[in-house]
Amino acid sequence: MHLADAVPSEGPRRLRNFVDGRFVDGGSPFDIRDPATGRVHAVAYEADRAIVDAAVTAARKAVAGDWGRMPLARRRALLCRVADRIEERFDDFLEAEIADTGKPHALAHHLDIPRGAANFRVFADAIANLSTETFEMDTPDGGTALNYAVRKPLGVVGVISPWNLPLLLMTWKVAPAMACGNAVIVKPSEETPSTTTLLGEVMAEVGMPDGAFNVVHGFGPDSAGEFLTSHPGIRAITFTGETRTGSAIMKAAAPTVKALSFELGGKNAAIVFADADMDAAVAGLARAAFLNTGQVCLAPERIYVERPVFAAFVAGLKAKAEALKPGLPHDDGVDLGPLISDEHRRKVLDYYSLAVEEGATVVTGGGVPRLSGEAANGYFVQPTIWTGLPHGARTCREEIFGPCCAVIPFDTEEEAIALANDTEYGLASSIWTQNLSRAHRVGKAVEVGISWVNCWFLRDLRTPFGGAKMSGIGREGGEHSIDFYSEPTNICIKL
After folding, report:
1. Which of 446, 445, 362 is nearest to 404 (CA)?
2. Is the N or C terminus of the chain more exposed, i.e. has fewer CB atoms within 10 Å?
3. What distance in Å separates the CA atoms of residue 55 and residue 156, rounded to the nearest whole number?
4. Whether 410 contacts 401, CB under 8 Å
5. CB 269 within 8 A of CB 429
6. Which distant-in-sequence residues (6+ apart) come within 8 Å of 42 by Cβ?
């Protein structure tokens, strides 16, 4: 059983649906392109309703059978073995992730694959170390009763994962769901199905019970996504992606009252105060704005800088942006990959044009880099910085999801907080100051799910992660994930 049903010299790899412990034939083929070159590197097969139904049937059978009855110690050992096997096949996962996303080798090697494996160990530990509630109560007859809670799996969980960090964000959901004893059906993004398909191989290799992990490929409306979210046999949906898609999933899930966990869009703010360590702020926010070519839901697209240090900050950020090197993932020194698709590049470039129409001064970037060879056909854009935009401009209000940011001056702490909070989103913020009291004040005042101070993307996986306002529903991480993927039953015993 191999991900590559055809070696590269014979044509693109075939990525089939994985149902009930095996890869299955069927479904309409669609191309998967390497964003760094524009070439087709794989063909996936869109799951029809019958394939999704078969996956749900297999998953429900697993929950009722060997997987659902498996002792916790054995379940944890299997999940740790999954992590081990990902690491043993590190190069396979790395190449699959790079082929789908075009991201630089160093980034995928350092972040995506290690975190994908780590998620299974983190949640195997989390499920073993969480307690449940116990209460002793007096009863009306003068006796006592003991109440205690037990955690039970929800049943079948639908996982809809995004394309920007395909393995990392998919396993961030799959690992806790399976740790709780649920069976999962994963629909990866139609742009990036390779590592999820490869994980199906790993599940079979480690002896995961049939049906505990399933993969269906396809799109959203009238495809695998809609079939999953509306299926009466699925108890919960977890999704990371655009707010509009989250809204559509809510509508599809409403008739069957599914549990929902959403991490949605953002238009994140960073605030740089005059007393900040300027070198650290410039370096930290350059990484935040341009990592993964800006295709990170936590990236700050709005940077508010206190006026006395505004010019110095802009000059420093400009130097960092212009030092980035775009190119093919394995080329020496490349640290800026392509956008995920030609369609997404057109969207980002439209915003680049819109910013100018709205009065922006383009500090750097604003177009497409000149590249040669295979990279000339890739979906690259220049990292871009704007000044002069009014806070109310569309470019400052709408999520772009590219390597760009608007830098806007402010004069007071109160103004900075008001500007940061003046958005329909509330995912993350990054605050830079050496004033400890201010750090606590502003960190608490911003209306976001996670507020970093003097850092960005620093994650303790036990802590709550999610968005406020239109950036999401619920929290993931540590016990928060376990709470979502399990259902407590209270048992009351009259003594």
Report:
1. 362
2. C
3. 10
4. no
5. yes
6. 12, 13, 14, 15, 31, 32, 99, 100, 193, 194
In the chain, the amino acid numbered 23 is: F
Condensed to tens digits (0 to 9), the pLDDT of residues 117-148 reads: 999 999 999 999 888 999 999 999 999 999 99
Residue 21 CA: distances (Å) to CA of 79, 198, 212, 213, 476: 16, 13, 8, 7, 27
pLDDT in tens, 91-115: 999 999 999 999 999 999 999 999 9
The Cα–Cα gap between 105 and 34 comes to 14
Number of C-beta neighbours around residue 466 at 10 A: 21
Q: Which distant-in-sequence residues (6+ apart) come within 8 Å of 162 by Cβ? A: 169, 189, 240, 241
For the residues 187-193, what does the mean pLDDT come to? Answer: 98
Is residue 112 within 8 A of residue 95, CB to CB? The reply is no
Interval 21-38: pLDDT, tens: 999 999 999 999 999 999
SS3 assignment for the chain:
CCCCCCCHHHCCEEECEEECCEEECCCEEEEEECCCCCCEEEEEEECCHHHHHHHHHHHHHHHHCHHHHCCHHHHHHHHHHHHHHHHHCHHHHHHHHHHHHCCCHHHHHHHHHHHHHHHHHHHHHHHHCCCCCEEEEECCCCCEEEEEEEEEECCEEEEECCCCCHHHHHHHHHHHHHHCCCEEEEECCCCCCHHHHHHHHHHHHCCCCCCCEEECECCCCCCHHHHHHCCCCCCEEEEECCHHHHHHHHHHHHHHCCEEEEECCCCEEEEECCCCCHHHHHHHHHHHHHHHHHCCCCCEEEEEEEHHHHHHHHHHHHHHHHHCCECCCCCCCCCECCCCCHHHHHHHHHHHHHHHHCCCEEEECCCCCCCCHHHHHCCCCCCEEEECCCCCCHHHCCCCCCCEEEEEEECCHHHHHHHHHCCCEECEEEEECCCHHHHHHHHHHCCCCEEEECCCCCCCCCCCECCEECCEECCECHHHHHHHHEEEEEEEEEC
Q: How far is 45 from 217, CA to CA, in rounded Å?
A: 6
- What b-and-e string marks burial along 249-286, b requiring 16 or more CB atoms within 10 Å of the CB? bbebbeeeebbbbbbbbbbbbbbbbbebebeebbebbb
Q: How far is CA 411 from the centre of its chain?
A: 34
Read off the pLDDT of residues 357-411 as tens digits, 9 standing for 90 and up. Answer: 999 999 999 999 999 999 999 999 999 999 999 999 999 999 999 999 999 999 9
Residues annotated catalytic, as ranges: 263, 297
Q: Are the CB atoms for 415 and 374 separated by under 8 Å?
A: no
Residue 129 pairs in a beta bridge with none
